[in-house]
UniProtKB/TrEMBL annotation:
Organism expressing this protein natively: Lachnellula arida
Protein name: Protoheme IX farnesyltransferase, mitochondrial
PANTHER family: PROTOHEME IX FARNESYLTRANSFERASE, MITOCHONDRIAL
Cellular component GO terms held in the UniProt record: mitochondrial membrane
Superkingdom assignment: Eukaryota
Keyword Transmembrane helix listed: yes
Length: 516
């Protein structure tokens, strides 16, 4: 039989059977009167002390009786369940026992400390606390824009524009555009700084590239938000998005996503080339159609997302290659033709960078990912999470050397990029060894934030032949690639040919002229 006892059952007249011998000896001179059960522990003991003239029983008398400790712990939960004692008199009064919620326990000053928490529980609690306070992420731009829009008047541009910007995830879109522009700039064109009327890399083409890429990125991000508003509401990073807060309708967000995608790919098709337009459409399909639903299915979503991040550098490279294409200008020539290894190396650099960056970022919010049902390595397999971050951090050394070998940068780039690569690997090793705790996730996150812009800027500064052409342009020396200054454009060549033509009469006169 299972019965319930109040926390103060040891002080009842029929509860002395559970008191140890030392406590009985301490209270032998005191006769506890048999009186009706009082539902207030402190009042009952006070009345007993007033009647008998003896001091009130202290809790220390019962420190050897673990029933009191169990009763106090159960009183905090609301009930105490124990097996039936051997004393039949207590079991017989089960029906008359008062309910635990009707009993008032003693003050906390007389409550003995509970059992000490087990060591592994302490370590788990420390890890949870560290995961919540270890990494301070920068403010979310989409959340800031949503807050700004919510305070603006309804049906106004001040409200609509921040909402549309929030749907496009501005920071992510800017990163995508910058990587495409950097790859466009790094394309090795010998005539880049030559003194010609029109530069070999068109500024207008660059404008179409940036505008179209921005709209394609906005479309992909808006479709991503359309797919998962109910799960975004479960995470602190995403619960302030416009669709979650109802600042824009689903139809309005879908219209924005479709229009952005159509206009973006159209600008890339007519303003750049069809290959770049196809890559922009492919990026939308992979991000919104594969990566987004795969987040709830498999940890492979991270690899798909990395491929999505590697496509913009290929777009910039193909845009530049299309201006110097000598054949039909198809995707085979622009992406698989001779001399296009550099574009794939730049794409590989972006793919590798996303792993240490995301693994560190996701670790600090792994509990939120788990509660929302997103299958990320940070909580599915934390040990592998650190290994993947370290593995792809090491990949930057061969990638930077490959850019030098392919003729995209000077060999000095391999030396100049070594310190930032070493820093990233050092933080990745610490993150892997400590599995994110003790500040290792924060260190790797900020190392990755600084790593990408530093490497891309160094690559542009160390572009192959850049400073040699700048020096020749400053001092006026001829370019050795131009054949010692003997190279002529089409107009100059036609002028020379015209000047070399001689009339038949002049030729006869020249023949009749006696030689001297």
């Amino acid at each position: 039989m299972i019965i319930r006892y109040p926390a103060a059952s040891a002080f009842r007249s029929n509860g002395l059977g559970t008191v140890c011998l030392s406590c009985i000896l301490q209270t032998a001179k005191t006769k506890i009167p048999s009186r009706p059960v009082t539902r207030n522990f402190s009042t009952a003991t006070t009345r007993a002390a007033a009647v008998t003239g003896t001091p009130r029983l202290r809790a220390e008398y019962f420190s050897a009786n673990n029933l009191l400790e169990k009763a106090r712990a159960a009183s905090r939960r609301g009930a105490l369940t124990s097996s039936t004692p051997s004393n039949g008199s207590i079991a017989g009064q089960n029906a008359a026992a008062p309910k635990p919620e009707d009993i008032h326990t003693t003050s906390t000053s007389t409550t003995p400390p509970l059992k000490e928490e087990l060591p592994h529980r302490k370590r788990q609690a420390a890890r949870r606390a560290a995961s919540q306070a270890d990494l301070v992420l920068p403010q979310n731009a989409s959340s800031n824009l949503t807050s700004q829009a919510s305070s603006a008047p309804a049906n106004s541009l001040r409200r609509l524009i921040p909402i549309l910007l929030s749907l496009s995830k501005p920071r992510l879109s800017i990163l995508v555009v910058l990587t495409a522009m950097a790859s466009y700039t790094l394309y090795p064109v010998p005539e880049l700084l030559s003194q010609t009327e029109t530069p070999s890399l068109s500024t207008l083409t660059l404008l179409f590239l940036t505008t179209g890429t921005t709209l394609c990125a906005a479309s992909a991000n808006a479709l991503n938000m359309l797919y998962e508003p109910k799960w975004d509401a479960l995470m602190s990073r995403t619960r302030n998005r416009p669709l979650v807060r109802g600042l824009i309708s689903t139809r309005g967000a879908a219209l924005f996503a479709v229009l952005s995608g159509v206009i973006g790919t159209t600008l890339l098709y007519f303003g750049v080339n069809p290959t770049v337009s196809f890559l922009g459409a492919l990026n939308i399909a992979l991000y919104a159609g594969v990566y987004t639903p795969l987040k709830r299915i498999s940890v492979l979503n991270t690899w798909v997302g990395a491929i999505v991040g590697g496509i913009p550098p290929l777009m910039g490279w193909a845009a530049a290659a299309g201006q110097s294409a000598t054949e039909d200008g198809t995707w085979r020539e622009l992406l698989l033709g001779e001399g296009n290894v550099g574009g794939w190396l730049l794409a590989g650099l972006l793919v590798a960078w996303q792993f240490p960056h995301f693994m560190a970022l996701s670790w600090s919010i792994k509990d939120e990912y788990k509660n929302a049902g997103y299958r990320m390595l940070c909580w599915v397999n934390p040990a592998r999470n650190g290994r993947v971050a370290l593995r792809y951090s090491l990949a930057f050394f061969p990638i930077c050397i490959g850019l030098c070998y392919a003729g995209v940068t000077e060999w000095s780039f391999a030396i100049a990029s070594a310190p930032i690569n070493v820093w990233l690997v050092k933080e990745a090793v610490t993150f892997w060894r400590l599995e994110g705790i003790k500040g290792s996730a924060r260190g790797l996150f900020w190392a990755s934030v600084w790593h990408l812009p530093v490497v891309m800027i160094l690559a542009m500064v160390e572009k192959k032949g850049l400073w040699q052409r700048v020096w020749r342009a400053v001092v006026g020396e001829p370019d050795p690639d131009d054949g010692e200054g003997e190279w002529m454009d089409e107009d100059e060549e036609e002028a020379v040919l015209e000047a070399s033509k001689v009339s038949p009469e002049a030729r006869k006169a020249d023949i009749a002229m006696p030689s001297r």
